[in-house]
Amino acid sequence: MLDDKILFGYTGLFNSPNEIIRAAEKVSDAGYKKYDVNTPYPLHGMNSAMKLPPSKLGYAALIFGLSGMLAALAIMYWVAVIDYPLIIGGKPFFAFPAFVPVIFEVTVLSASIATVLTMISIFFKFPNISHPLHDTDYMKAVSSDKYGICIQADDAIFNETEVKNLLEKLNAHEIKPIYYDDNEIKHKNTVFEPRFLILLLFVALITAGATYFAMNKLLYAVPFNWMETQEKLNVQESSVFFSDGFGMRNPVDGTVSRGNLPYQFNGNPEAASTYLKNPLFPDDKNISIGKAKYDTYCSPCHGYFGEGNSRMRGQFPNPPTLHSEKVRNWKDGSIYHVIVDGQNIMSSYASQLTYQERWAVVLYIRVLQRSLNAMESDLE
Amino acid sequence: MSTIDFTRELPVIEGRPSLREIDDIIAKPLESKPDIKYYIALSITLTMLLIGAVALGFSFYYGTGLWGNNNPVGWGFPIVNFVFWVGIGHAGTLISAILFLLRQRWRNGIARFAEGMTIFAVITAGIFPLIHVGRPWLPLYLIPHPNQHSIWVNFTSPLLWDVFAVSTYFTVSFIFWYVGLIPDLATLRDRTKNRIKKIIYSVTSLGWRHSNRHWQHYEMVYLILAGFATPLVLSVHTIVSFDFAVSIMPGWHTTIFPPYFVAGAVFSGFAMVQNVLIFIRKIFNYEHIITIDTLERMNKIILLTGSLVGYAYAMEFFIAWYSGVQAEQFAFLNRAFGPYAWAYWIMVTCNVVFPQLFWLRRIRRYIPVMFVIAVFVNVGMWFERFVITVTSLSRDYLPASWAYYSPTLTDGAILLGSFGLFFTCLLLFTKTLPVVSIAEVKAVVEGSQPSHGDH
Amino acid sequence: MNTENHKVDYVKKEIPSKIKKIGFVLTVIGLLFIILAYISNPVRSGFNNIILLMFLSSIGVGSLFLVALEYLAGSVWSTPFRRISEFMSATLIILPIVALPAYFYLHDLFHWTHVESLDELLQAKAGYLNIEFFSIRTIAFFAIWIVFFLFLIRNSFKQDKTFEQNLTKRNIKISAVFMPFFIFTVTFFSIDWIMSLEPHWFSTIFGVYYFSGTVLAALAILTLIVVPLNEKGYLVKGLVKDHYYSLGALMFAFTNFWAYIAFSQYLLIWYANLPEETFWFLQRWEGGWIYLSIGLILVRFLIPYIGLLSQPSKMNPKRLIKMSAWILFAHFFDLFWLIMPTYGKGEFVFGWIELGFPVFAAGVLIIIFTYFAGRFNLVPSGDPKLKRAIDFRL
Q: Which of A120, C97, C160, C216 is the most exposed place for a label (fewest CB within 10 A)?
């Protein structure tokens, strides 16, 4: 029975913490390297008795903590300054004091998770949980109330009789060999084994799939309609509610939209000429607006320079030139009146041009007139 | 007990039990079938949970109009309950991390249980912001991730900091709790004779062998986690206080809020832990592990934090007057003498006056009175959050919009349900995992550590 | 209760007289500079005098707080060091003398002493900020501190000879009574002497801010004295790195606590952006003060934080001495940052006038220490907890 099993090591049990500390010191002094002490709780002074170098896990915490900190800062900078800059509460895009809480939380989160993962994957050899000591009487004793020491057979100076003698000299109880079956025990750290990696991949796929299903399918199932179907009428829809069958309503007669007073001088060019004054200043900006609007709406009939050379090829009567003495002597208000009210067969352009744009067009017409009838004083 | 001998240390665990006795007594609830009392308790908490669930169901179906929240008081019960439960969660990490760093060995008997309470309290707290937004099925958008709308969260908003703080706090508390459980799960693995339990314990204990080469790293990780959890626990309630204090609402915008909220959270958390421990030690016969000395020390911390909260109340009032800002002065006078004066004075008596009884050693060690005081503390701390949230909002800068807030039956049912959830989780915890840390208790039994000078 | 087994062998060693001489020389030099400073620019010297007062108060009342805290918390590791904190809390006795010169220039230092008729805010505060009440308060604070100092210290000194356990019990009770007094006196002392320099500004956390600096200063001076004394064998045998660790850890913890409080105050005021609060920080963000403000983060937080972060550095005697001296400097730096911008009004001020005050502080602290060290034991040799304290291991 024991022939196909391999010797793992010799174990001995002690009853008091002082004894085990002494034993650990003696075993360490005897030159053994591959031995271990198993105690139900951590004993003060055991690390120095076993001459263990201090744990370096602090560096893992430091490195991952700093990485988390910098990552949080970088992501927030990119989001708040580059990709999605919004002014909120009058604060600068890079509002560092307001980033501090999140930086702190991410630092703590990444450092804590990474330190624990480092411990269980490197030192506990997670996901490998098999070990020759498991399920032995020795393990049952040290997990409750005994203090045990185990000298491993793969130590360079291991010798069965010498180890037995040493343990006996230390007054250990129940000195026993531990055997194991090589097929049942893995020694390696299995964190990079294909089977484990495939398991991780599988978990990742399930998680991703579940998230996709939840976010894209489940959330669009019946109770969550995202207000896509609403009990209301959209524009251009018909309705039986109103007698005319339209879903949309016209405004009540006499409705005035905000910011637009109705034109007061319809059919009254004299009053327009007397009372209307151009509110715009003839600067580059206003004149260029006027030019743009004139070229768009007026030039098809009046021509680009106001000479009445229509591009309509006779489909519409040519208007008279704007450079006539009569038009040149008109007040601004009269031109404005014609734009708003129309004249002869010219129709109203009030719906095409806003209040500002109409006056800008008037300015531009004045510029055109002046350009063909420049005065000597213009040269000065 | 009239004289204390200062030359000798008070034993943390009374009666020098053997290590195996500790195993037996702590593992007993897990190895025995629950009795009828357990089922009665569970049915009560489940009924409370059901009431809350029904109220939530109605709220989802009909909308948040079922709650008392009105136009100036938009925060109402959900936020009051959120702050209250997050506060309850603070004692666990304080006991397990800060007292660990301060080498307070009496914490070992109560740390596991308090950590469990932290986790359940944070779970309970997490429900409230989600239901308060009105669309609890969209929490993913709280977490910054690339999405089809190409929008990002606002990193300068304290409400977003809350998301980070509470989720980090939950994760780290959970890791801390689990790391603490590993050696105990290994001990249970070696004790149990049930095959299924054995598989579960084997997998969850990660192959732990009580090896000193592992203990060394384990202790380092525990220290590092405690070192991180300590500022973390401060940051969580600090950030909750930022929700209020970065605004310019009178009564909310005051610089003492961060430490004041943290002290209040520890205060209410300790009161809740003390309340529950009184039952646990009685029911499971843990009187010599969770000793009367431990309870007395907890009461001292309740006294300390209660007095700090009282200090903060006093400073708020003084600085409100000293600042000369009329809105601020009005806010505080309104708290004390306005329509919510009843809530304010409940808060002051419960939080500041009653805990002062703990100056007396006899009361600190007399279980019925300390239990009642701690219940009052929790009532008082709930009302503190109510007073802060509701009084300031109900009478803001614009008198035309003032309105009185009164909660509805649905609000009350959801609050009841939150208690149901918390206590249901606790009851299940007591029967599934060791509520006292086996390894940590063994480490503080008298004679369990080697004497100095031998090495 | 056999006290005999718990007695500790302690042989007192005298402090070299050289140190006493250094103390005297520093005090005299400092005093000369201070007198010259008062002659050349009394108002500026008055502001410096407030810094000196707040610094020495921190050490005095902070040390007394540490003593009381040890009794209340029942902590064991700190018992061999308690006597040094008791010595340093004697600084409280000279505080009235230090406050006196500044008191003569109250009108130039404190804007609220002469309220203009148009300043309605200050008129509203006159019930609190008036010279009579201010003087009464200051005297009351000093009196309360000195009374508690005398009671606590007397019992502790008496115990060296009598070994009575009852004295420890009595001191626990006195400490419990002291704590609420301590919290409120320190808060209002800092409000009166620092916050009211800018009487329009207000911050509820201010008392906590000064408290964090006070505890840091008291811990730093304790460490600065205890570590060299123990290294040279003036204290009892058996104090090891485990005892140092707690000192280092506490300094580290309170450095973080200070940063937490300072950041909370800054963030809330910066975020809400109310003009009645932000002007105080703006004042410290103009002229040369901006470098001091940024430097404060470095000096008071980052350097001690990095210096004390790792576990070995909290036990390393050399590192502890360096860091505790640095923290004392940082406390002075912090007080300078709190107080001087009010004098500077947007302009950075630093010159020879500022130098005499820290020199004087150092000299006075050395004299106080050597005076008491010459008369009393350097460890509380009669304390029942002392044997346990020596056996303390992490």
A: C97
Q: What is the pLDDT of residues B145-174, one digit of tens each?
A: 888 788 899 999 999 999 999 999 999 999
Please give the angle made by the CA atoms of B371, B376 and B377, to the nearest 5 degrees.
95
Q: Residue A199 carries which DSSP code?
A: H
Domain map (residue ranges) of chain B:
30-443
Q: Which chains form contacts with chain A, at 3 or more CB pairs under 8 Å? A: B, C
For A34-63, the pLDDT digits (tens) are 888 999 988 888 888 888 888 888 898 999
Residue in C closest to A58 by C-alpha: C310
Q: Is C188 within 8 Å of C207 (Cβ atoms)?
A: yes
Q: Tokens at residue C273, please? A: 């952006």
Contact call for B455 and A22, based on CB within 8 A: yes
CA distance linking residue B403 with residue A31, whole number of Å: 81
Q: The domain at A269-379 falls in which architecture?
A: Orthogonal Bundle (1.10)
Q: Does C274 touch chain A (CB under 8 A)?
A: no
The helix or strand, by DSSP H or E, that contains position A149, with its residue range, turns out to be: strand A147-152
| B185 to chain A: closest CA residue | A143
Is B178 touching C (CB cutoff 8 A)?
no
Rounded to two decimals, the pTM is 0.85
Distance from CA of C218 to the nearest CA of B (A): 19
What ipTM was predicted for this assembly? 0.92
β-sheet bridge partners, residue A180:
A6
Chain A residue with minimal CA distance to B247? A89
Determine the residue type at B256.
Answer: I
What part of A 6-65 touches B (C-beta under 8 Å)? 16-18, 21-22, 24-25, 36-50, 52, 55, 57-58, 61
Q: What tokens appear for C225 in the block?
A: 């004295």
Q: Which fold has domain B30-443?
A: Formate dehydrogenase/DMSO reductase fold (1.20.1630)
- Chain C residues 278-317 within an 8 A CB cutoff of chain A: 310-311
Q: Cβ contacts (< 8 Å) between A140 and chain B: which residues?
A: 190-191
- Coarse DSSP helix, strand, coil percentages of chain B, rounded to the nearest 5 percent: 75, 0, 25
List every span in chain A annotated with CATH 1.10.760.10: 269-379
Q: At what angle do helices A96-118 and B158-191 cross, to 10 degrees?
A: 10
